Amino acid sequence: MDLTTLDRLHDIVQPSPVSWWPPAAGWFGLGGVFLVIAVVISGKRFVHYRRDAYRREALDLWSQLPAGTSGTELVASVSELLKRTALAVYPRQQVAALTGETWLRFLNETTRYPCFTGPLEQIVSSGPYAGDDINLPPSAQKALLEAARKWILGHDPRRGVN
Asked: Are 71 and 135 in contact, with CB atoms under 8 Å apart?
């Protein structure tokens, strides 16, 4: 028998393919880290969503404000909406008694960018207490409504009353 003949050769036996399961321990660790991150982000988003429920309700009420009506009715409605929104997030003892200039200062100090400036200062500070009919042109009504919307969206609950 000749050892150099090719009759005794066999095909190369290939090993079985490597299974993808179970993965290495590092993949379990990485999956755990991603799971923890996902839970933390979801939790924070849920807390933020719940915390801003009053904002969503205020915006819903804002969309129902009587635009195009008398100036007195609009000013009273906007003032009521702003006060209710402020009472939902700031301490009642500090916000409920605010009127006139102190109320205007509160509204402007609780946002990064003051909303009630220029001609709106007089409307917001003394308008709800004017008693007689307030004549607001459509442009002033629109400005008042937009300023109220900006305040609802932009006020910062961490900026409290001094």
From this structure: yes
- 99, 86 contact by CB (below 8 A): no
Per DSSP, what are the bridge partners of residue 111? 155
d(CA 126, CA 108): 15
155 bridge partner residues: 111
pLDDT tens column, 45-93: 999 999 999 999 999 999 998 766 778 888 889 999 999 999 999 999 9
Mean pLDDT of 2-20: 83
Alpha helices by DSSP H, the chain: 25-51, 53-63, 71-89, 92-95, 100-109, 119-126, 138-154
Specify the pLDDT at position 68.
67
User: For the purposes of burial, counting CB atoms within 10 Å of the CB of 99, is it exposed (0-12), middle (13-18) or buried (19 or more)?
Assistant: middle
